Amino acid sequence: MPPAAAATDRERSARRTETAIGIALVLAVAAPLVAFTATQERPTERGHIVVTARFENLGGLVAGSAVRIGGIDVGRVLSVKLDTDNLIADVALAIDSELALPEDSVASVGSGGVFGDSFIDLLPGKSAVTLPPRGRLAKTVRVYSLEETVARVVMGSVQN
């Protein structure tokens, strides 16, 4: 075999080896990511209903935050968007479909302390009518920031 042909064969062999190593690296990186994604809970899938609530102030609430009743997790916040027409936060919640949440239930934003994560706290109402999927919680409680609370206390004590 002439030297030029041997060099060409070596180049082809080297390219095949590099291609095989590249494919192996891609698979080594992609496989764990696919496995991780496949095992994550998807709140919008079977077992959850989506309802919405509107808030004047979210106090640090973000998508992925917990939704709780009596301190027990019953869902997750799916999204937080600003309603640009009314300048109010529109929050989508994925709630366990086994819950028959009364339509007069109240939603508020809670916090796990000064450095704790914010969450939605649901206080079930007394109505016999339950909130349907894609329904809206009509009653929400405004959250006051620490600064607003301090200002209200100071202003209240100054006026007295």
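Next protein, fold it too.
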Amino acid sequence: MRFKSIEVGPMGVNSYVLYDEESRESVIIDPGADAESIIDLVTGLEVTPGEIWLTHGHFDHLGAAKAVSAEYGISIYMHDQDYFFYRNVQKFAAIFSVTVDTPLPEPSFFNMKLACKKIGKFSVDIIHTPGHSPGSVCFFCRENNIIFSGDLIFKFSVGRTDFPGGSFPVLEKSIMENIYTRGESCVIFPGHGPETTVGREKTHNQFVRMR
């Protein structure tokens, strides 16, 4: 599986396009803003989006979801525990003086009993990792040994837990059980900022450190 990223919006969200190089099937993760830029990236890759996946329901990660969903006629998937944020997206965006194109289409919810989706021939595990928000999820690609962490963990930092539904003890547990168990070489691609590795974070992350 291959992927490309683009930084969008005033909050500097990393949006990702994951794709199967052979079938050209793709998924868009966290279309946070700048729909035209995301669409241009998809066009340049010559891939066919099949779904939009949200790591969580905060406004900065879904600001372009309506436009991108309409452009390709595709569904938006998220964890049902973050539907409250999705439904009230304009209210939360206004706190940061940001406007989101609404109304958003009704989302679909990840089947967490299955907890897996396909992109072409590749399987992606959907891991429930609450803490930053109740319905935060990460996407783990076994073949590539990479994980898309949303706002759970960043390079040498972690996601905020002072939003409604946030909890540092829950976030810490999610990181310890679902990130730090992945192996030292697993590469983390977060919702903001540069990539990092599990090994690097276990040693240097000042908020959740194992050594």
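About the second fold: The mean pLDDT is 97.
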